[in-house]
Structures are given as C-alpha cells and as structure tokens.
Amino acid sequence: MVIGDITDDNGWMSTHSASEHSTPRHRGASAAGYLASPQHRVLGVGDDLSRRLGADHLVVRVGLILLGLAGGAGIGIYFACWVLLKGRNRPSAKQPTFTANLGVALATASALAVVTTVTTGLPDALLWSVTFMAFGLILPSPLLVANKTNGNDSDRGNGLGNGDGTQRRRATLFRVGSGSVFVIVGLSTLLASSQGVDQLWRSMLAAVVVVGGLAMVFAPWWTQALADLDAERAERIRAEERSDLAAHLHDSVLQTLNLIQNRANEPQVTAVLARQQERELRQWLQGTTSTNGAHEGDDTLRPTLENLAAEIETQYLSVIECIVVGDVELTPPVIALVGATREALVNAGKFADSPLISLYAEVDDNLVRAFVRDRGRGFDPATVPEDRQGIRSSIHGRIERANGSTIITSTPGQGTEVRIEVSV
Amino acid sequence: MTTPSPNNNGLDDTAQNGEAKHPQLRVVVVDDHSLFRRGVIDAIKDKVNVVGEADDIKSGIDVIRQHQPDVAIIDVQLPSGSGARIIEALLQGSVDPERTRFLGLSVSEEPTDVLELVRSGARGYVTKRIQGDDLVATIEQVAAGNAVFSPRLAGVVLNELSGKTTTTVPASSGAAESDDPEMQSLSPREREVLQLLARGYTYKEIGVELHISARTVESHTSSVLRKLQLSNRHALTHWAVRHNMI
C-alpha cells in the first residue's frame, strides 16, 4: 500500500507519509482511541512521560511513534525512559496544557530533524523494518495490557498459565495474527524496496541485528520475570500450607493446651488430654507426610486396637500403651479377640486405678494373642461375684465361642494381666 | 578425661542394683528444644553431673568429644538431621565406645527414627514422656553398658526382626540385612524377653516369669541390641574396627 512511496530517497518524507497514511488505515478508528487512552499502554512509559511533561497522551505517543519511524530513535527513547522511570512512583495525572503539548511536539520535530539529518545515509529498508517492528511491539500490546488490568494484581501469577480462557485466546490469536501480518508486510517491503539482492541481504542483516539486539536487551528481564512468577507461585503455595497448619494447630493443639491449663491440678486428666492431643497430632502429621497406614483403614487388627486404646484412654482417663506386632485381617475370631480385649481394657480402666495400662498384641503364624496388663489394685479371681458378667461373658464366653483361650492372672496390690489367644 | 576409671569399676554393682550410689555420672544433653533441654537437665541434675549441653549435630559432636561423658542423651530429631549422625561421627574414633554410651531421647515413635538411632550405636531409646526418676534410672542402666528397651522399642524390634510378620518399617531400611541369616532372627529366648518387655514387664518381672536372673535378661536384651546394630553397615565397621584394635 505505502510501498510505492518509498522510492523517494528522503527517509524523513517516506516515514512521514507512512505515519500519515498507513497508520490510520491499518488500525482503523480504534488506533486513535488506543493512543489517546491512558489505560492502553505497553510499558506505561507514554503514560508516565505524559504525566511528567503535562502533555496529552496522544501527543506524546504520536511523537514517540514518529521518532520510532525515524530510524528507531523513538523506540530507543521509549525504552531508555522505561529503564529510567521503572520503579519510580507514577505522578498523578494532570490536565494536559497547550504549552506542554506544543513543547512535546516541538521536541519531537527537532529530534526528527536531527535524526533524519543523521540517518539519510541509511537505507530506507532498514527504517521500514524498524518501523514495522515498532508497530509489532506496540499494536498488539493494548489488548494484552487490557487483559492484564482486568484482573487484580495477584492474578498476574496466572498470566502465562490458565487465565480466563476465551478472552486470552482471542488476544493470543490477535497477537499472532497481527504479528504475522507485520512480518509479511515487512518482508514484502524489504523485497520491493531493495534495488537488488545485494541490498536485500544488507537490510535483512540489519533487521536481524536489530532483533538480536532487542533480544539481548530484554532476555534477562524476561527470564527474571518468569523466575519471579515461579517464586511468587511457590511462595503462595507455602503460605497456603502455613495457614492450613496454623488453622489446624489453632483448632486442636491450642484448645487442648487451654484445657490443660484449666485443669492443671488434675494430673490424670491433663495426662490423658495431652496423650489424646499427641495422638491426634501424630495422625495428622503422618496423614500429610505419608500415605502409609492411613490407607489401611480400620479393617485390620493393628488400627482397630490402636483406635480402641485411644477410645478407652479418653473414656477412663488412663494412659494405655498399645503395641501391636504384625497385623491380620479382621476375621470373626479376631473380632472376638478385639471384643474381649476391649472388655479387659475397660475393666482395667474402671477398677484397676493404674496409671498405665499395657496392651500388647502379636500375630504369629495363625495365632493371635493379646495381653492387657495393669499395675493397679488387682483382685482375687476366685472372689469375683457371680453377677459380674464382664469377665465371665465378655471375655471368657466370647473367646470360648471363637475356640480361643483366656488366662487371667491377678495379684491384689500388684495388678492384673489378661491373656487372650485365638487362632485365625 | 579426668576420671577414667571409677565408673568402670562400678559397672557390675550398678547393673545389679540401680539404686547403688556410685560416683556421679557425667552426662551431656543434646536437644534442639531449649525449654525441653532445660527440663531434662533440671530433672536429672541432682542425681548426675550434667557437664555439657548442645542444640545441634555439630555442637553436639564437639561437646561430647570435649567432655567424653559417661552418657550422652541425644534427641532423635535435630534441626540439621538425625541425632544418629552424632553417634556415627563420634564412634569413628572420637570417643571410647566402652566409656561413652549413647541414649536416644525422642518425641517420635516412628519405627524408622527409633531404629536408626539404635542402629547407629545408642544403647537404648526413651520417649520424651519419661519421668525424671525413670530417666535417671535409665541413664544409670545405659552407663552400666546395658541395653534400655522401652515397651515401644521392644515392639518395634519385634516387628523388624521377626521375619514372619508384617513389618511397619519401609522395605528400604529392612532390605540390607535380610541377606544375613544371623541378623534375620531372634533366638526364641530373646523373642520371649522382648515380648514380655512389650507387655509392660520390668527386667525383674521377666526374670521371675522366665525363671532366669535379671542379669540374664539384660544379657538377652544386650544381644538383641548387638544384632540390631550389627545389621547396620556403619555399626558393622565400628564393631570391626573396635575389635581389631583391642
């Protein structure tokens, strides 16, 4: 479209005509809108500059673009300003004044004059390639930026990943599409403008140099931005875990500590509370650190007995040391053993008045044994009243039906041991 | 360094009779939890001579090497790793294993943690729930060269060394020694002793139950400990080095 104009050997004239004709035609009515609107920005330099200079966005941006067309000086200024202004506070927006606008326009014009004087020797094609790259950098970005500003700051972490789907996809499509158009236009401009193969190579080389330079300048920033993103994401995950942990500790441990403080004069109660909390915390820690054990469920002997011990501990305020060697499925005889063990533990908890009850169970080939021992007051088995059904039916009877055996030994003053044995 | 001999002389007496008054035992406590360390020291300082304390692996190694205590109480979980590292490092030759004994102290009841410490060379292991007097008795036992088996540790060992039953320990830690037939199994007597320990019996009660002396019970537990430690490659080298040098 504008290719014909470039036969002119005046670089300034050709770029000038490009900016007049091709810009509006390419972008349509919305281009002016983008340029004038402070919301749409590449790196925010135009906005920043216009605020600092007190000039209109439109004027500053057009000036930058014009300078950009003139041998890429505008691009250089743009990024130089970006680097210099980065991290500084953005001044608040002021009403643009005519003098400031005029000043910017004059500064642009004089810069253009300087640049054109200096660069007339350069091939037009180089200017054009830079021009198109400038467009390539500026044009698609308003959409991307618009996308970004839709979300709040914390959403930036998702910028590269899963965003709000269709809009992002459309933006990408637009970016790739317009980028491709620019590449094609740029290449055809090169081809048409070159007088011969010789000059084509020179122009291509120049373009490659420019692209390489840009890459060199921005690669570290880009990688840094990616690294920041990763770090931010990891930090967020950590923070979530921390708050999980804090919530858990608050709900359980702190509550228990409060309880313990309130009942400090009841050692047995505090011991059991502490035990209970300890068990809970252990389970919780194991649950998060390993799947081992948690998945076994309660369908085998070991977890069943451990839960049983915990339950009796809470109920009778005794401390039960539960040790299980081996494990076995809960078949009917094993269930009978668990039932009898429960009764033995309950008896020990209720009557023995023992600070510690030992529960030991082992699985050996096809024999399962359980031992419940306390160091409490003990009793004489011969003197247990007939009406006390606990030992008689719940322990002996149950185990006999399962073809097992029970032995109860007790010495008054020294404690009791109940031995239960069944075969699987 | 200063008093090399009296403790060795007292060994047999204290083994038979924990109450015997013997020269004050020199003890080092390594635990990263300062409040807890304070508590341990307060609980035992009337009965033993606490000569040093440390809160991590490096300072633990230094303090124990410097003081050569009779007993070093070592927390299983230290900030920079397992307390077993301390024992391993010191047993490379910095301390005399016949003179300085190690006792594990842990809040963890994870079989892997417990076993690691015992295998590295600790004479035993107690949980942090232990009461002051029991801890003193345990320290005396350890100083006498005896193994200290809590019911929990007995259960862990039974799970680990009884080849027949399912073990709670991950295969990785049990794989190395399963090649060695001697390490694989406990003798029937050792098994009985461990079972009674797990059932909550004291050494004395076990002796009565099995019609053997408490001393014999101790020799059984010590031999179990040796089997455990020999099943550790590191311990094996320590053992070999020690015996070649004697």
Any overview of this molecule?
- The complex is a heterodimer of chains A (424) and B (246).
- By secondary structure, chain A is an alpha+beta fold.
- Chain A has helices at residues 11-27, 29-36, 45-53, 57-69, 73-85, 98-119, 124-138, 141-150, 165-193, 197-262, 267-289, 301-316, 332-352, 389-401; strands spanning 319-325, 356-364, 367-374, 405-411, 415-423.
- Chain A is elongated, with a radius of gyration of 41 Å.
- Chain B has 13 helices and seven strands.
- In chain B, helix 2 (34-44) links the parallel strand 1 and strand 2 (49-54).
- The relative contact order of chain B is 0.11.
- The chains are: A alpha+beta (424), B alpha/beta (246).
- Chain A binds chain B through residues 282, 292-293, 321, 323-327, 356, 358, 360, 362-365, 371, 373, 375, 417, and chain B through 109, 151-152, 154-155, 158-159, 162, 164-166, 168, 170, 195, 198-201.
Helices and strands, with pairings:
The complex is a heterodimer of chains A (424) and B (246).
Chain A: H1 11-27, H2 29-36, H3 45-53, H4 57-69, H5 73-85, H6 98-119, H7 124-138, H8 141-150, H9 165-193, H10 197-262, H11 267-289, H12 301-316, E1 319-325, H13 332-352, E2 356-364, E3 367-374, H14 389-401, E4 405-411, E5 415-423
Parallel strand pairs in A: 1-2
Antiparallel strand pairs in A: 2-3, 3-5, 4-5
Helix pairs in contact in A: 1-2, 3-4, 3-5, 4-5, 4-6, 7-9, 7-10, 8-9, 10-11, 12-13, 13-14
Chain B: H1 6-16, E1 26-30, H2 34-44, E2 49-54, H3 57-67, E3 71-75, E4 77-78, E5 81-82, H4 84-91, E6 101-106, H5 111-120, E7 124-127, H6 132-143, H7 151-161, H8 171-175, H9 181-184, H10 188-198, H11 203-210, H12 214-230, H13 233-245
Parallel strand pairs in B: 1-2, 1-3, 3-6, 6-7
Antiparallel strand pairs in B: 4-5
Helix pairs in contact in B: 3-4, 4-5, 5-12, 7-10, 10-12, 11-12
Average the pLDDT over all residues of chain B and give the rounded result: 76
Q: Low-confidence parts of chain A, pLDDT < 50 over ≥5 residues?
A: 1-29, 138-163, 288-296
Major β-sheet profile of chain A: 5 strands, mixed
Instruction: Output the radius of gyration of chain A.
Output: 41 Å
Q: N- to C-terminal separation of chain A?
A: 92 Å
Q: Spell the H/E element sequence of chain A.
A: HHHHHHHHHHHHEHEEHEE
Oligomer: heterodimer
Q: What percentage of amino acids of chain B are in beta strands? A: 5-15%
Secondary structural class of chain A: alpha+beta
Write down the overall mean pLDDT of chain A: 71
Largest interface: A-B, 20 and 18 residues
Q: Could you estimate the helical fraction of the residues of chain A in percent?
A: 55-70%
Number of strands of chain B: 7
Strand line-up of the largest beta sheet of chain A: 1-2-3-5-4
